[in-house]
Amino acid sequence: MTTTSPTALDTPYDLAPDRIAAFERDGFVHLPGVFDPDVVRHFEPEITAKVIELNTMHLPMAERSTYDKAFLQVGNLWRHSDLVRELVYSRRLARIAADLLGVEGVRLYHDQALYKEPGGGITPWHADQYYWPLSTDRCGTIWLPLQDTPLELGPLSFAAGSHRFEFGRDLPISDESEAAMQVALAEQDLPVVNEPFAPGDASFHLGWTFHHAGPNVAADPRRVMTIIYIDADMVVAEPVNENQAGDLAASFPGLKPGDLAASPLNPELYRR
């Protein structure tokens, strides 16, 4: 295993003003060189080992739903590995989130490893915040691939400007959301941006930014670590669907609507 240092995880990233402006305009931004590739290589084996250990999806691909064909999804790895916790607690990443969200600080909502297996299908169009019982839109996701990610592996694609588009916010990730959003985004003439990711690149997108991923037609899995951040002063909202009710119980244990979103599972990761 390669080694890394706290400096790599905690020194500020040079977030240029044009990147912040692009994020505000588009609802997402692709950030080159967030980490040196050696840093990514340092964490990948441990994240992969935990995905293998904690994954509960074992059906053959042909027997899975569209959702389950899209990726293996394993959350809260930071609670199962001291090494992964170092990455999730990275002040470098948390400061990027705070700067892009325009807030004084951020806390952890949760992390997720998203591994698209060889032969894995599309990730249907959706917006993450459909699932989140949060009172504002000041929340978003760092999407950090753990290898070189050409288009064949199925990197994320984003509908630029869709964070201002309210149609589809009541749709869970599904065949229905894929079909409906294909039509709606085309009617709105929102550009779809689909780019490869080099090792160490990352993206950040808002909770209401619609995104999608193609199938993995390569021989290797697409290995990705994500960290979801919320405004450190976020308040829990009343759930508006069953998925949000489930997330309230799982991600904010002991909290109720109107509370500061600060359970023991939501440590503050950065404040100016």
Automatic annotation (TrEMBL):
<dbReference type="InterPro" id="IPR008775">
    <property type="entry name" value="Phytyl_CoA_dOase-like"/>
</dbReference>
<dbReference type="GO" id="GO:0005506">
    <property type="term" value="F:iron ion binding"/>
</dbReference>
<dbReference type="GO" id="GO:0016706">
    <property type="term" value="F:2-oxoglutarate-dependent dioxygenase activity"/>
</dbReference>
<keyword id="KW-0223">Dioxygenase</keyword>
<protein>
    <submittedName>
        <fullName>Phytanoyl-CoA dioxygenase</fullName>
    </submittedName>
</protein>
<keyword id="KW-0560">Oxidoreductase</keyword>
<dbReference type="Pfam" id="PF05721">
    <property type="entry name" value="PhyH"/>
</dbReference>
